Amino acid sequence: MTLRPFHLAFPVHDLAAARAFYGGTLGCREGRSSDHWIDFDLFGHQIVAHLDPAARVVAVENAVDGHDVPVPHFGVVLTMADWQALSGRVAAAGVRFGIAPHIRFQGQAGEQATMFFYDPSGNALEFKAFADDAMLFATTKDPA
Q1: Beta strands 45-51 and 7-12, pairing class
Q2: How much helix, strand and coil, in percent to the nearest 5, is found in the chain?
Q3: In this structure, what DSSP letter does residue 74 have?
């Protein structure tokens, strides 16, 4: 099976701020747009920021490995090199991390680098990477 790009449409309260954040800070190439929406290429996936001036994120948090993870959230599983580069770019831009870059589930099945931050409309994003992509859906650590 060939992995296909996903499509995600989400609300933003300011298209100019979304353009600056997704296009500038995250480095997403912009696709089609109108006065009410903007397509972005998020590491090969199509995300669409739709204008809703009244948009307010309603979020809860679930405990995961000692951190309060915001729900809902979205993001991409990157290579470790891309994750490290994005982490540096986001930090250099002064974006506040909701959960700072770190290694989750260290020494366990599913060990991963992860970070959470918010766009200007309050949408939570998570980007993660695995040293071993086979751990993406791991439930137990394979014996050595």
Answers
A1: parallel
A2: 20, 40, 40
A3: B
What tokens were used for 29?
A: 């190439």
Reading the block at residue 128, the tokens are 């993660």
How many other C-beta atoms are found inside a 10 Å radius of the C-beta of residue 124? 20
Give the distance, in angstroms, between the CA of residue 70 and the centroid of all CA atoms in the same chain: 12
Q: Which residues pair with 51 in a beta bridge?
A: 12
Give yes or no for residue 144 having a pLDDT over 60.
no
Residue with tokens 């979205």: 74
* Contact in structure between 83 and 113 (CB atoms under 8 Å): yes
For 68-116, write each residue's pLDDT tens digit.
999 999 999 999 999 999 999 999 999 999 999 999 998 888 899 999 9
Residue 36 burial (CB count, 10 A): 10
Q: How far apart are CA 135 and CA 144, in angstroms?
A: 14
Please, what's the largest Cα pairwise distance for the chain? 55
Determine the pLDDT at residue 110.
87
Structural domains of the chain sorted by starting position, each given as residue range(s) with its CATH number in brackets: 7-135 (3.10.180.10)
